[in-house]
Each structure stands twice: as structure tokens, then as C-alpha cells.
Amino acid sequence: MRKAIFPGSFDPITLGHYDIIKRALPVFDEIVIAIGINAEKKYMFSLEDRKKFIEESFKNEPKVSVITYEGLTIDLCHKLNAQFILRGLRNPADFEFEKAIAHTNRQLSDIETVFLLTAIDTSHISSSIVRDVIRNGGDYTILVPESVKTK
């Protein structure tokens, strides 16, 4: 069974995240969306809200589950018997950052990282941009799945 962990803070989930997950469904038997908990970070949305947004977005997809975790993603992969980490790439800066993490993960474990390029129409979207639009009263609803629009 091909199981992938898709880690992130998802503060909030965006249409870019959503697209990567939907496009990864034919590749994996199971995708675990893992919301990382970092006590040092200040989030706009509560952990419960972020988890709810994702669960609602994928409520009709049995291959997707949502969990929260602390610590190294490779440790989570071993705990859940996942062989892959799924990551989306928007631009060359993402690639350089994610490549370094993937190389480190391979040095520390047998976990492979699988990269999917974001779709052209979502490649400009990031959670930080969504948060900035929300903070400034803009129309963020064109950047997020339906489940986030009700917040």
C-alpha cells in the first residue's frame, strides 16, 4: 500500500493545497494530511478550525484522513507506516527549500519525498497571502476551498 503524509500548517488550507491533494489521489492508496503543531508559531486559525476545514473539504474522499502531530515528519511516517512525503512546489524558491528538506529526510530515513507542481491557476496562492488578504478585509474566498469561506 502506498501511503503518503502531506505535512503543513494549513493556516488555512488553500486551493493550492486542495489541488495537490486531489491530483495526488490516483498516485497513492492513502493520503494523511498532517497538521504540524509548533508552539513557537502564532496561527490565525485554531488547530481545531484548520482540521475541520480540511476534513470538510475531503469528507467524501475515503483515501484522505487528517491528523495533527508534533516532531519530525519522518518519525510520523515511520509511526504510520507511510513510505512517502507529499509536497507541492509553486516556484524555484520552494524547490530549493523543499529539496534541502527532502535530502535531509533521505539521509535520516528511507522516506521518499514526492513533489507535485502546483497548477498554473493556483501557483500564486499561499497561506500567508490568504492571511494577509483576510487581515486587510479583502475577498479571500477566491483563494480557499468552500469549507474555509464560512469562517
TrEMBL record:
Its EC number is 2.7.7.3. The record marks 17 as: Transition state stabilizer. One of its GO terms (molecular function) is pantetheine-phosphate adenylyltransferase activity. Keywords: ATP-binding, Coenzyme A biosynthesis, Cytoplasm, Magnesium, Nucleotide-binding, Nucleotidyltransferase, Transferase. InterPro entries: Cyt_trans-like, PPAT, Rossmann-like_a/b/a_fold. Belongs to the bacterial CoaD family. This is Phosphopantetheine adenylyltransferase. It comes from Flavobacterium enshiense DK69.
